[in-house]
Specification:
It comes from Candidatus Roizmanbacteria bacterium CG17_big_fil_post_rev_8_21_14_2_50_39_7. This protein is an alpha+beta fold. The chain is built from two helices and four strands.
């Protein structure tokens, strides 16, 4: 796997694992998808799906979600104080 220094390797790694499991005979309850949501404040809060590493430096929210078609299977987050209606 190559890291380009622009995009987060953790999201790519999660999607790569799903592809490998889908191609294997191992039984599992997949597939799942993983994405990251960031939020940048420039007066207003702007949400970014799969932000670049540069965007993440200025992000007030780092939310990673993995889900299947039916349910959310993982949520990880780091956030500065944000208004409840934004979350």
């Amino acid at each position: 796997m190559s890291i380009d220094g622009v995009n987060s390797p953790d999201i790519l790694a999660a999607l790569t694992v799903v592809a490998a499991l889908q191609a294997s005979p191992i039984p599992w309850k997949g597939p799942i998808a993983t994405s990251r949501v960031g939020a940048v404040k420039n007066g207003e809060v702007t949400f970014i799906v799969n932000p670049t590493e540069e965007d993440q430096k200025f992000s007030v929210l780092d939310l990673v979600v993995s889900s299947s078609e039916e349910k959310v299977v993982m949520i990880e987050t780091r956030a500065e104080e944000l208004k409840e209606d934004l979350i």
